[in-house]
Amino acid sequence: MDPYSLKKLNELRRARRAAILVTDLGDGRDRVVAEGDPVAGQLGAHIANAFRSGRSVTVEAEGRQFFLNVHVPPPRLVIIGAVHISQALAPMAKIAGFDVHIIDPRTAFASAERFPDVRLDAEWPEVVLGREPLDPYCALAAVTHDPKIDDYPLKAALEAGCFYVGALGSRKTHSKRVERLTEAGVLPEAIARIHAPIGLNIGASSPAEIAVAVLAEVIQAFRTRGLQEDGEVAA
C-alpha cells in the first residue's frame, strides 16, 4: 500500500469516517476514497454499493478490475431513554451488530440492573453528547416521550447527519415537537428526516414489538443510506 494511502486511511478511520482502499489489480496502484467523494462512471456505482453493504469486493469497471477494501465504522445506536422499549431494543441491536449506548438522566430508570451489559449514562444528553458527539454512522432513537430530554439529542442528530433519527410519539405529539424544533432554528427539510411515529408500521403494540419495528427501520435506513439522494428510493 502507498504510504500516503495508509496515512489517509488511518486518519479517516480515527475520525469514524467510512473509506475504501481502491486497488487497480492491473498495475497495483491504489488510492483512498472517503464516503461522499465523487467518483464517476461504473467504478463510482460499485464504490457506492460497497459503502452501503460494508463488504469488500472485486469489481470490473471500464474494462479494468479493482479490489475495493471497505473500511466502515461500526454503526452506533444511541437510545435516548432507559424505558421498556429500550430494554428490548438494546440486546436485539447488539445482536444485529450495533454499538448500543443508552442515555437517560433519570437514575430510577437508568440502572445497571435494568440494562446489564449495555453502555449506560445516567446524565443529560447535552453532557454526554458534548463529550462524545454523534456522527453520520450513528442512529438516534428518542423514546422518553419527554421534550426536556428528547429535543436536544434530536436536534444534535439532525445537525450531525445521523443516518437515522427517530422519535416516539403520536402525530399530535410530533406536531408539537416540530414547532419546538422550528423555534430552535432547525430547518423544515431537516425536521422531515425524523421518523415519527418511530419504527416501521407493522402494527406493533407491546414494547418488544415496537423495538422490533424500530430496529428494522434503523437497519433499513443504514443499508439504503444515500439511495434517496440518488433517486433510487422513493421519498
UniProtKB/TrEMBL annotation:
Top-level taxonomic group: Bacteria
Domain called XdhC Rossmann: residue spans: 77-218
Name the UniProt record assigns to this protein: XdhC family protein
Source species: Chelativorans composti
